[in-house]
Fold:
Amino acid sequence: MTGLAIMTAQEIMDLIPNRYPICYIDYVDQLDPGKEIVATKNVTINESFFRGHFPGNPVMPGVLIIETLAQAASILILKSPEFYKKTAYLGAIHKGKFRQVVRPGDVLKLHITMTKKRRRMGIVDAVATVDGKKACSAELVFIVADRDAKI
Structure:
């Protein structure tokens, strides 16, 4: 990371509802609201999921890589002026591909680009990389609602 984080972990938790142990974004590196975001997840051996996935061969579960991408995408969506102070719910995952395993000590860089926005939804292209190599990619669809709405 060069310079200071655009958003700290506390600022992220002020925006999205995820909390420990399932808030996976450590900081936001770059942000162009409504367009693109780059965020970081430092993968550590202390993650609770490594106890069972897999003992003696710790691998970050693919579903949690997708969740990490979804959290970065929700930051991007909720920083868009029309969706600020709302909640983004993951509605669909398309074209999900896993290309390499993610292990303790890896730094996941999350690259999210907004491809479509409508009144109550957003679609993003999401890519997670480790050392510049693609680990996972997907198209994610979000439904956006008021924070207290029952959807």
In short: The chain has one domain: 9-145. The beta strands are 27-32, 36-42, 86-98, 107-118, 121-130, 133-146. Residues 66 and 136 are 8 Å apart (CA to CA). The chain is about 15% helix and 40% strand.
